[in-house]
Amino acid sequence: MSNRTRTNELKFFLSDDEQYILNRKYEQSGMRSKSAFIRRLILYGYVYDVDYSHLRECNTILARISNNINQITKRANATGHLYGDDIKELKELMNKIWDTQKSMLSKQPSIKQ
Question: Going by C-beta distance under 8 Å and a sequence separation of 6 or more, which residues neighbour residue 100?
């Protein structure tokens, strides 16, 4: 044991499902030892914890915008005219869509190496 370069032992517990997943991934990796596989995951793997709450907010805003656009379209079809105020409102709604999408993209997690 004194010849080991790695002297720190790590012990943790897995559920049956987690153990099954670990075993499948280890087998697919083709690596010679499970210790080397786990060490590689720790050193070079990524853990993703993604918060999707901003996407729900974005979907709510987009649904409201879609509703407004549908109302403008119905009014234009009913009257046969598209009024300046309607065009202005459509432009504002489109800007809101772009701002919402920019905001959504800025909240995406970045992967740092």
Answer: 58, 61, 62
pLDDT(18) > 80: yes
Closest to 58 in 3D by CA, of 108, 24, 11 = 108
**Residue 111 near residue 46, CB atoms below 8 Å:** yes
| Residue bearing tokens 């080991």 | 4
Within 10 angstroms of residue 41's Cβ, the number of other Cβ atoms is 15
Would you state the pLDDT for residue 113? Answer: 46
- Rounded to 10 deg, the angle between the 34-44 and 16-29 helix axes is 90
Query: What pLDDT is recorded for position 111?
Result: 52
Asked if 66 and 59 count as a contact pair (C-beta separation under 8 A), the reply is: no
